[in-house]
Amino acid sequence: MSKVEFTISTSELTENKTIIINKNFQEMKNSISEISQNTQVELTNFQIDFLKLEIPMEEFDVPFEEIGIKWENLTEHPTIKNQFVLKVETWHYAKNFSIYFGRKSIVLRFSLPYLLYGHNYCATVLEDFYKVKTLIKDLIGIDITFSEIKELEFGAYEKINVDAKDYIDSIVGIRNYELEKSTKGFKMFGDIKRSFHYKTYDAVANAKAKKTFTLGNYPKEGLIKHEIKLTNTVPYFDSIFYLDLYEPLCSYWDELKEDLISSRKALILKKENPVLLYNTDLIHILYAGLKQYESGAASENVVRSLFDLIENSGLTPSQKSKRRKAINLLEYQYNQKF
What we know:
This protein is α+β, with helices and mostly antiparallel strands. 33% of the residues lie in helices and 25% in strands. The chain has helices at 23-37, 112-117, 126-140, 164-169, 203-209, 213-216, 234-237, 252-265, 282-295, 302-311, 317-333, and strands at 5-8, 17-20, 44-56, 74-76, 83-86, 97-101, 105-111, 148-159, 171-174, 178-183, 186-191, 196-202, 223-230, 267-269. The strands form 3 sheets. A 10-stranded antiparallel beta sheet has the order 4-5-6-7-3-8-13-12-11-10. It has a two-stranded antiparallel sheet with strand order 1-2. It has a two-stranded antiparallel sheet with strand order 9-14. A hairpin with a 2-residue loop joins strand 10 and strand 11 (186-191). The radius of gyration is 27 Å and the shape is elongated. The relative contact order is 0.13. Mean pLDDT is 82; it is low at 1-38. It comes from Chryseobacterium gambrini. This is Replication initiation factor.
């Protein structure tokens, strides 16, 4: 075995020591390289899914009762005044669509792929936005071309080779976002200042729950949906309108796609990246232990995790013993008997 030598300084020793990287340490480096090569992100079926559109009443210059609404195709919500849904007999994919007539604006909420295809296991293309614009005009009598987009969801799918629920459970976090919701097969993290949220969930289980599994021709297992959810588009885009979505030269699609991919790459998974020591003094060992907890790669016991780091550190048996004694002393001082 070839030996690689380098010099480090430690707070416990008064002079520099030469540390030989042992076989275990080298194997750990090799495994990390292998992990990084196998974590290439491959997303498919990029789509704009949910949309919330708003049209100011001043655009019409008349009360909404007089703007040619096709009331015969709408049913009023049983408890929310002035909110309506499409009648099922009017359009076969009428679910996930609602329209609210307020005093100052008209608000539409719908999933674009669900409205067109009855499921969302598909990519959305420019032609789809023309189709939806025409469909809403035909069904309701409203032109959404210049409606402002207040909320949207942009997503894509990822095929994985492990159980989807286990994969979701293994996600520890993403960037500096807060965990906002976590259920079996679903997690959502958020950045409140930007009204930015990141959702990831078991797409197969979701399709079965919504009874779209057969229609969408979903795979039997191993499919994850990743989504950016903007609950307010202003911090993200300043302003964006429906016609922007089918403008061929518009940069919004590229921005959303880039953010989705970078967010997916930023996901921190349990035991995905073992922490390497940059130095083997006590401070570096303790900080590496903190980073392992941050990434979810540490065991449940603090001392045991630190001992594992020491064992794979490349230190000599004598030096390992000194580090373990120092950690045991800290454990005793903080009154947590090991």
